[in-house]
Structures are given as C-alpha cells and as structure tokens.
Design brief:
Helix content: 40-55%
Number of strands: 31
Strand content: 15-25%
Oligomer: single chain
Strand order of the largest sheet: 23-24-26-27-28-29-30-31
Structural class: alpha+beta
Largest sheet: 8 strands, mixed, barrel
Length: about 950
C-alpha cells in the first residue's frame, strides 16, 4: 500500500498538468496502470454498457467517478486482489474525479461557444446574402458576393450554381468559378448531363458528397465524369416546397482538402437562402426593366403630347393667319395696304424680313412685283422680263423650292437656273412658293435670308405653302372685284358687239352639232365609223338584201394579232399610232359604198354591201378582199423606231336571207374569226354552218378536257435531240399529247386554244413538267430534257421557285433541264423575265430560245437574256436546199451562236439531205422525224430507240 501511495504521489503532478479531458483521461489510465498489481486500466463514460460484459470477472474492479459520470475499470494482475486495488486507488479517484468533471464542463462550454460562433457566422452569412439580393448590384456581382460568403463558411475555391428550368427541361449555368475548368455551357438540355453527379442531385433532390468512387456507390446508375477529375465533391439541391430548382456544387482538386458532413449540412442549409436571393434579385431586375420600359413609354407619350401641342399651336397660328388674310381681301383698302397686311401676317409665322410677291403679267412675258421688301437692296426694279432665275424655276416646275446658297449654285451648274449679273448680294437661304389660280400658276410668294444663321426648314415651307393658297385666293377675289368693275363699264359697249357674236356663235354651234354627230358615230382614235354606225349600216344593208332576193353582202371581222404585246412594250402612244396605220391600210383596200369600222381595241370590221358568186358558188370578192387586206397589213410598219411586221386574222360571213339583224352577222363572223385564230392566225376563214356546231363542240371539248385532267389522260411525248454527225441522243424535248378515249392521241393544236381560253393550260403545263422530269430522272445518263414554257409562266413571281422545287421533288438535276422560251415571251415585261431566267440560270437550268428568227428583233435577245441554246425554226430548213438566202441566215446564226458560246439545235430535220446541209454549215445538233417522232415513255431502264443515220424512226404518232 505504501508503494501505491508513493506511485500516486509521483503522478499527482501529471494529473494536475492535464488541460483537456483527453489529456486527463490518458493521465488517469497511465497512473493507474503504473501501480503494482494492475495489468490494465481505462476510463469508461458509458458505465452500464462496459461493466455488463465484465461483471463476472474476479480480476476486474470498477471505481465510480460520480462527479464526472465515469468509471475507472482496472484489471488486477495474477495474485492481486481487486478489492485491495480498489481501496488503494480510492485517493486517486477522489483526486481525479473533480478534475475530470471540471475539464468536461469546460469542454462542453467551449463546444457551446463554437456552436454560438458558427451560428453567428451563419446568421451573418444569411444576412449578407439577403442584403446582396436587395442591393442595386447586377446579378453577376450578387453571385460573386454569394460565392465570397460561402467561402467564409467552408472551402469554396471551386464553386458553381446551376438552375433547373422545368418548363423546357434545361439546365442553366448561372455562376461558375473553377481553377481547372472554364464554363462548359451556358444552358443545355438536362439529358445532355445525364448520369453526371449534378444530374443525380437535380433528379433525386438529395445531396452527394465524397470522391468520385464513393459517390458512384451512392447513386443507382452509372456515374459520368464531366470536366476535370476532382479529389472531393459536394453538391446539394436548392429546394422550394419539396421541388428541385437547382444545385450548388463545391469541389476540391487538392488531396488534403475534403468536405465534412458539417459542410454538407451547412451548404444544404444555405442553398435555400441562396435560391431565395437569386430569385429575388431576378425579380428585382425584371421589375427594374419593366419600370425602365414603362418610363420610356411615358417619355414617348410625353414627347408625342408635346408634338401634338406644338401641332395644335401651329394650327391655331395658321387659322389666325387664314382669317386675317381673308379679312384683308374683304377690306376696302388700296393695294399697298393689302400687301403690307399680308407681309405682317407672314412675319407672324416665320422670318420674313426679306419678302416679295411676284405676279406674271397678262401676256406672261414679265414678272411684276406689286410688293417687295429687301433690306439689302433698295433699288430693285418693280418688274423685269422673264429669265431663268429661281423665281422662274418655281413657276416652271409648279412646285415650292427651298434652297441654300450652295444648292442654288448646284442648280446653276445643272443649267436649271442662270445667274444674272448685277443681282447684288446672294441670299443664304431662299424659299419660294407658287401662287395658283385654279390649275394655272399666276405668280409666287418668296422669303429669303442673307444671314447665315437664319435658315428655313421644311416646316416653314409647309406653312408658306398653306399661306400662299390663301394669298392666291385673296388676290383672285380682289382681281375678280376689279374685273367686275371693268365689266360694268364695258357692258354697254359690248351689247352692240354681242349681236354680231351671237350670229357667229349660232354658226359655230351648227358646226359643233355636226361635229358631235360625227363623233357619236365615229371612233375618236382612227376616225372610222364605230359600232353604232356599223349596226345601222348592216341593218340597212340586210333590209335591202331581203328586198332583193339573190343579192348578198359580206362582213369581214378582223383582229390584229399580238396587238397587246405591241401596246405593252412600245407604249400606248405607239399602240395608238399602230391602230391608226392599220385603219388607214384597211381603208385603202375598199371603196365606196363599202365600210370599214372599228369595234373596240384591235378589232375592225369591213362591210361589203354587194358580193357575187364565182363559178364554184363561193363569194369570190370577199375572199379576194380578205387576201388583199392580209397582204397590205403584213407589210413592214415603222413605229417608235421599230420595224414591226403586223398580222391579222379574219373571219368572213356572207349575209343572205337567213340574217335579219346585225348582231347575227357579227356573231357568225366572230365564230369564223375564232376558227382562223385556232388554225394558226394570219389567215382568213369563211363561215359555214358546221362552225356553229364547232363553237358548241368547243364547250363539250372544254368539259372533256377537265375530265382528262382528272383522269390523267394528258402525258408528255419525248422527241430525241441528237448530235448530227453520229445521231447520238443528247437530249429529249417533252411535247404534250392527249390520250383521248374516243379520238385517240390528240396534238396540242386540237385542244390548246380551248385550254388557254378556259384557264386550264397552266395546270396542264405543270403536270407535263412533272411527268417528263420524273421520267428523265430515271434515265441514268448525261442527256438533258427540254420543256416549252409559255409567256404567262414567266410573268409569275414564283415560277423559278416552283420549277426548282419540282426538280428537287422529281430528282432531276437542274443541269439536265433546259426551258424553251419564244421571242414573244421575252417582249412582255422584259425586266421581270430577265430576273426569272437569271434565277434559273444561277441554279444550273439552261435557257433555249425557241423558233429563232420568226419574231421581231431576235438578235438583241442573245445579249440581253441568259441564253444557253438557240433552236432554229423549221421554216428555215424547209427551203434550205433551194435558191435563196436561207443557208446564209442559218450559217450566220451558227457563227453568232459559236461566238457567244451557245449551242445551236436545228428543228424539223426530215431528210438526209437537210442533215448533210446542216453538217456542212457546222451545225452540231438537231431533231426531227429523220431521227425519231415524239413517242410515249419507254419502259424504265431503256431509252427511246434512236434512228440510224439516213433513216426515219416511226416511234409514236403525232407531230
């Protein structure tokens, strides 16, 4: 026991030197274990749990430390009795127990202090976050401040905030700071971050913490690495009412820096406050933008209101000026007082220190200045001859003029104004407004400034224009009053003269009456009898024919071909001159009592009052005169610098006993005229009874044509285009055919006019385009397809786009398509046509000029339009081998095309001789019956048969 007391005394100092609970516990266990007879010792805090397992051991002794709520458990050595050891340790326990109690209490107090410090730090952080959200800083500064605040609570060198947009299911990187990575995105779909750690936090709404390997054990799927690998990672969701709105993430790339559970709880607690701050700041910025926008709107409203006030004030000044001017006009004052009053009124509206009113003399050769005030020129004349000054410019142009000194010099350089010597000091700004009496300019009112700081504006011009109209009205009223005074003085003198004038007027009225009667019955443009006189004459002639059985009359209904084209391209004046010349030529073809009349537009009628029969029973004079008319009309006609070659179609009807009224005769002549047009124009056609049925048949044909479109009976036939030297097919022209169920295959001439008149032609064209393109697209070679495009297509603004879309749908390359246009197509609105063709050329579509040489000024189109091919009309080939200049024309066309890098294709080759002549003229390509007739589609994968050189192919039918 004395040894134990000595050991305790030796370690007593050790117990007293302990400053913490752990140090004291270690000292107690060390002192107890160092005593003799003790193998082991330990301090137990939860006494019941520890003693329960060792209560059966005879070697164990337990000593309570009641003050500190602990137990000192010792294990006696062999041969030592636990009770004796416990008795020996009692003083040690008595000394250590209050020390341990005091240190435990001190540790608890320190923990409370730390908690209070952490709580205070958290409160300061939350307060700072709240202040940031309510500050006037922008969002980026607020987010940087939040980052700094989180950095005071934990390690947050690498920090980002991601917001979730549930409406669009996207993730927006609101804030990102990282020492290793730059921001990977601003906003992207949530699925693009699938299986990343951030994605799991947003999906599950719970925090994740630890290394990548540890986090992989916390999720229910694969973990995808986004960005640089981090040694430790902590992410918490930002929640509101259980819904996830975003995530806050901190990460560490240093192996010694890890995040604890405390950091996780802390960041999770702060996250909801950060979400509130971000939303509050966002709402604040939205409110600020709304206030700013509303302020701008109110400012604009205020500006508009100020303008309205200014406009109303201006209107009031104008109203006052108008009233004063009207009052001046009605006052009985002299001229000078009147003009001075006007000057004062104008001075109220604008600077009028230098002001004058100038009026044209009665003979309009001089300018008179009834009022003139000029502070720099006192000796200006009160009248002068007309010249080419600024005043005369206003009178000549009938418009107000506002010019500065430099602008006036520009007018002088342009020759509009001529500077007159001796005019004195030039004005810095000059404003003149014409005065009108009805539609006639009678003078002008002018203000001018010699001060470089005084300039007039368009508003001043508008004011002076308004005032000028009132001045003109006042001048007119004063002049009218003066005129009435003079008139009263001259009235007696004119009474005598009036008697003579009345006699003269009576004669003039008789002449006018005759002229009116003539105008009522005649066309104003050509002077020919009009429809009314024609009806009277025809009815009278028919009445005489009925009274004289066996006698006949004839009516020729004439329509000028393509007159609209001439009128639209050369202008209405040229069109009027053209019609007058046609009328003159028609009159030269008949003699009295026959009549030439103009019905309307380009329609004329020739009435032959007496015609006989030839030996075959036909009315020869009518046909002879029709031939003579066609011959005379088709002679070249110079109009507006162009040499035109007009043509006409004529319908002839013989008036016999069947006709009683002029309308009946005109009706049948119109039917014959329609038939002549259908047969190719520039011809005449005699009416017979079958034509009446034909006109009825046209209605049936139109109905059948509509059914044919529905049944898809219209299809393209392809005619090969070959290389002339070896007959190799290089292309195909699509030609329209109608597979009529009763009449067989019909060519366009049998139904095209009906399709045109009924408005079906455009629908048919697009069907032909589509079917021919789709078929040629299946022919896998380098041949091309040509299609005929009517003028109406080129006037459509969307034609190029529709055609290119159709190429894309059918799979035919644009480079394999060539569109054929006629010269008439290029005449109508040439600028629009050039634009459409240019769009197609830019996409690779070729342009061919069809029927070359049959129109007006053919050669000019080769330069003006983007053409790739010329097709020589078949009319040149028909007489190619005969004496004449056809070969020279064809040769010239080929040479010209070669110089312009264009391809030449000859149409209508029907014999080996024509082919040989074309080869001798260096023509490379051609088409015609010699090489193949237009044929229906061959089966897919095969091309139409090619005729051998010198033979004619009989594939298909039709032309």
């Amino acid at each position: 026991m004395n040894a134990i007391d000595g050991a305790f005394a030796a370690w007593r100092e050790t117990l007293l030197e302990a400053r913490t609970v752990d140090q004291l516990v270690c000292a107690i266990e060390t002192v107890a274990a160092a005593l003799p007879g003790i193998d082991d010792s330990r301090v137990i805090w939860e006494r019941d749990a520890e003693i329960e397992g060792e209560s059966d051991s005879d070697r164990t002794a337990s000593l309570d430390l009641p003050a500190s709520n602990a137990v000192l458990a010792v294990t006696a050595a062999d041969g030592s009795h636990p009770a004796a050891i416990a008795t020996a340790l009692a003083p040690v326990v008595a000394t250590a127990d209050p020390l341990l109690q005091r240190l435990r209490r001190l540790a608890e107090l320190e923990q409370e202090v730390v908690k209070l410090q952490n709580s205070e730090k958290m409160q300061r952080a939350l307060f700072a976050i709240s202040q940031l959200s309510g500050s006037d800083r922008d969002m980026s500064e607020v987010l940087r401040g939040i980052h700094d605040i989180v950095g005071t609570l934990m390690y947050a060198e690498n920090f980002f905030i991601a917001l979730l947009d549930p409406t669009h299911d996207t993730i927006r990187m609101l804030y990102f700071v990282d020492v290793e990575d730059s921001p990977l995105f601003e906003e992207l779909p949530r699925e693009d971050l699938k299986h990343s750690a951030t994605w799991y936090v947003l999906r599950d709404g719970r925090p994740l913490r630890g290394s990548r390997e540890y986090i992989r054990t916390q999720v229910d799927g694969p973990l995808r690495l986004v960005g640089t690998y981090s040694s430790d990672w902590l992410g918490v969701p930002m929640l509101r009412d259980g819904a996830v709105h975003g995530a806050i993430v901190v990460q560490s790339y240093e192996s010694g820096v890890e995040f604890s559970e405390t950091d996780e709880n802390l960041l999770e607690f702060v996250a909801s406050h950060i979400l509130t701050a971000v939303e509050r700041k966002g709402s604040s910025e939205l409110l600020e933008r709304s206030v700013k926008l509303r302020t701008q709107e109110l400012a604009q409203v205020n500006c508009d209101l100020q303008l309205e006030i200014a406009e109303r004030q201006r209107a009031e000044r104008l109203q006052s000026a108008m009233f004063q001017i009207a009052q001046l006009a009605n006052e009985d004052t002299d001229e000078h007082a009147f003009y001075t009053g006007i000057h004062d009124v104008v001075r109220q509206l604008l600077n009028a220190d230098n002001f004058f009113i100038a009026l044209l003399s009665d003979d309009r050769t001089r300018l008179e200045f009834p009022y003139l005030v000029d502070r720099h020129h006192d000796d200006l004349p009160m009248h002068r001859p007309l010249a080419r000054g600024l005043s005369e410019y206003v009178l000549r142009t009938r418009r107000a003029l506002l010019v500065t000194h430099d602008e006036a010099l520009d007018l002088i350089r342009q020759g509009e104004v001529i500077d007159r010597p001796g005019q004195g000091k030039p004005s810095e700004c000059w404003l003149g407004v014409p005065l009108f009496s009805g539609d006639e300019v009678v003078g002008l009112v002018t203000v001018q400034s010699y001060d470089c700081h005084v300039h007039y504006t368009s508003a001043d011009q508008e004011l002076l224009v308004f005032v000028a109209s009132q001045i003109a009205n006042s001048l007119l009223r004063r002049r009218n009053a003066q005129f009435r005074q003079k008139a009263f003085a001259q009235l007696e003198e004119r009474v005598a003269e009036r008697t003579l004038e009345l006699r003269s007027q009576i004669r003039e009225r008789e002449l006018v009456q005759q002229r009116l009667e003539h105008e009522v019955m005649h066309d104003a443009l050509t002077g020919l009898p009009n429809r009314g006189q024609l009806h009277e004459r025809v009815d009278a002639v028919l009445a005489r024919r009925r009274a004289e059985p066996g006698s006949f009359c004839a009516l020729l209904y004439l329509d000028v071909d393509r007159f609209k084209l001439i009128n639209d391209n050369l202008g209405h004046l040229a069109g009027d001159a053209f019609l007058r010349e046609i009328a003159r030529r028609l009159q030269s073809c008949v003699r009295k009592p026959d009549l030439v009349a103009r019905l309307a537009g380009d329609e004329f009628v020739v009435l032959l009052e007496q015609v006989g029969r030839d030996r075959d029973g036909a009315r020869a004079p009518a046909a002879t005169i029709a031939e003579r008319i066609l011959e005379v009309i088709t002679a070249p006609m110079p109009i507006s610098g162009r040499m035109l070659e007009p043509s006409a179609s004529i319908g002839i009807v013989i008036g016999d006993g069947r006709y009683t009224h002029a309308d009946e005769l005109l009706r049948d002549a119109d039917i014959a005229l329609y038939r002549a047009k259908a047969l190719g124009r520039c011809r005449w056609q005699m009416y017979d009874q079958s034509m009446h049925g034909y006109s009825v048949d046209l209605l049936a044909l139109e109905a059948e044509l509509r059914q044919a479109i529905e049944r898809d009976e219209l299809e393209p036939y392809l005619q090969p285009i070959v290389r002339l030297d070896d007959a190799t097919i290089v292309g195909r022209e699509a030609l329209m055919r109608w597979n009529h169920p009763q009449r067989g295959v019909l060519c366009p001439g049998d139904f095209q006019q009906v399709a045109e008149d009924s408005g079906l032609m455009e629908t048919i064209d697009w069907r032909i385009f589509k079917r021919s393109m789709a078929h040629v697209a299946t022919i896998h070679d380098d041949t091309y397809l040509t299609i005929n495009v009517m003028p109406r297509h080129l006037q459509r603004e969307d034609f190029a786009r529709r055609l290119l879309d159709l190429l894309a749908r059918t799979g035919l390359a644009p480079s394999r398509l060539v569109i054929e246009v006629t010269e008439g197509s290029l005449l109508d609105d040439s600028e629009r046509v050039r634009s459409v063709l240019g769009q197609l050329r830019d996409e690779g579509v070729g342009i061919a000029l069809d029927d070359f040489g049959t129109g007006y000024s053919s050669l000019s189109y080769l330069h003006a339009f983007p053409l790739r091919m010329i097709k020589i009309d078949r009319t040149f080939l028909a007489s190619l081998g005969e004496p004449g200049n056809c070969a020279a024309v064809v040769s010239a066309v080929i040479s010209l095309a070669r110089a312009l890098d264009m391809t030449v294709v000859a149409e209508g080759i029907e014999s080996p001789e024509q082919r040989k002549l074309l080869l001798d003229l260096s023509c490379g390509f051609g088409q015609g019956y010699l090489f193949g007739r237009p044929a229906s589609f061959a089966p897919l994968g095969s091309a139409p048969a090619t005729a051998a050189p010198g033979t004619a192919s009989m594939v298909g039918t039709g032309a």
